[in-house]
Amino acid sequence: MHPEFQNVTWDLKPSEKGIVKVAEGRGGPINIAYEIHGNGSICLVWVMGLGAMMSSWQRQTKDFGHDQGTKYSSLIFDNRGMGASDKPLMRYSTSEMAKDAIELLNHIGWTSERQLHIIGISMGGMIAQEMAFQEPDRIASLSLVSTASHLVNTVGFVENLRQRINLFIPKDIDIQLAEVKARLFSDEWLAAPDVDGNFPTNGDRFAAQEVKKRRNTEAFTRKGFTLQAIAAGWHHKSPEQLKELGDKVGRERIQVIHGTIDKMITIYHGEMLVKELGGEESGVTRIMFKDRGHVLPMEERKEFARLIEQIVRKTGGK
User: Fold this and answer.
1) Rg (Cα) of the chain, in Å, rounded?
2) What parts of the chain have a pLDDT lower than 70?
3) 142 and 65 in contact (C-beta within 8 Å)?
4) In a 10 Å sphere around its CB, with 0-12 CB exposed, 13-18 middle and 19+ buried, how is residue 206 labelled?
């Protein structure tokens, strides 16, 4: 085992952590685990994607909640089905998961108008769309990263879902980890020296993170992953709904960020999302990273942080 293996999940101490019961009357109660890092006045809400835990935001948690913890408060949490949150056997949807997040925000007292800077990646970006659709007046900014209004594919939903489940729940761990890396990241980034420590490459560090995650069989389960995958697969926001979202949130508050060689949710989806929100001409910010893949917060950590800080300033954060 590589000596760095035990350090792939960083020991970042939160200023607050807890478990909140949500979904009373919606099939719950469901326990949602959360942490807040930092105690600043600017409220950042980081919404994670399919099959990942809140610790996957650790780079952004450090950048905003620790290095700038007097300026920002960063909320991270495990969606239902993953990590330390409950994994009930029931139909999951991105709209229900958004309600979970909103109830969590109500619990911690982040309820003011135009207070929330929401950043959602992949399935988390789908949940973020639903949050903004449900509570548009509370949104200060909305960053939709590597995500889609709905998934478009040519092989049909069942085959698409099968591919995604096989991607994350392997029979042969070495082969599947190689496939996961290829789907999520650019070859250039994977082959580059580890930017965060002492693994030979970035790809080696990511593989170690995946192995550590999957060894925690209570936090990462086949059931939870599958239920989340179904929610992502069925997510759908129509052009009419996205127009309403843009009208109510304000298009100048929205940015869509995507990698041009994203193999998980292709660039087509990012361009479609920009168009359906009203396009750049209406005020939506469009940022496409050339030759970058799905997990932009890792591949482009510094530039990604700059983009979040930029939209925070643009929409009233100091």
Assistant:
1) 18
2) 1, 154-171, 317-318
3) no
4) buried
Which residue, among 110, 115, 107, has the nearest Cα to 137 in the 3D structure? 115
Q: What is the DSSP string of 86-134?
A: ---SS---HHHHHHHHHHHHHHHT--STT-EEEEEETHHHHHHHHHHHH
Q: What is the predicted pLDDT for the residue at 158?
A: 63
The span from the CA of 172 to the CA of 183, in Å, is: 16
State the DSSP code for 78. Answer: P
The kind and range of the H/E element at 308 are helix 301-314
Residue linked to tokens 């980890």: 177
Exposure of 62 in the CB half-sphere (CA atoms within 13 A)? 13
Q: Calculate the alpha carbon distances from 197 to 17, 30, 61, 211, 213 in Å.
A: 27, 37, 17, 17, 18
d(CA 317, CA 155) in angstroms, rounded, equals 44
Distance (Å) of CA 244 to CA 22, 134, 198: 27, 11, 48
Give the total residue count for the chain.
Answer: 318
The first and second tokens of residue 88, run together, are: 């009930």
pLDDT digits (tens, 9 = 90+) for 168-213: 554 677 878 888 899 999 999 999 999 998 899 999 999 999 999 9
What is the C-alpha separation between 153 and 160, in angstroms, rounded? Answer: 7
Residue pair 199/4 in contact (Cβ under 8 Å)? The answer is yes
CA 187 to CA 26: how far, in whole Å? Answer: 43
Q: Running DSSP on this structure, what letter comes out for residue 64? A: I
Give the pLDDT confidence score for residue 171 in this predicted structure.
60
In tens, the pLDDT along 16-41 reads: 999 999 999 999 999 999 999 999 99
Per-residue tokens: 48: 């994670």
Token pair listed for 276: 């359906």
CB neighbourhood size of 22 (10 A): 23
Cα distance between residue 91 and residue 109, in whole Å: 28
Nearest by Cα to 88 from 23, 166, 169, 161: 23
pTM above 0.85, yes or no: yes
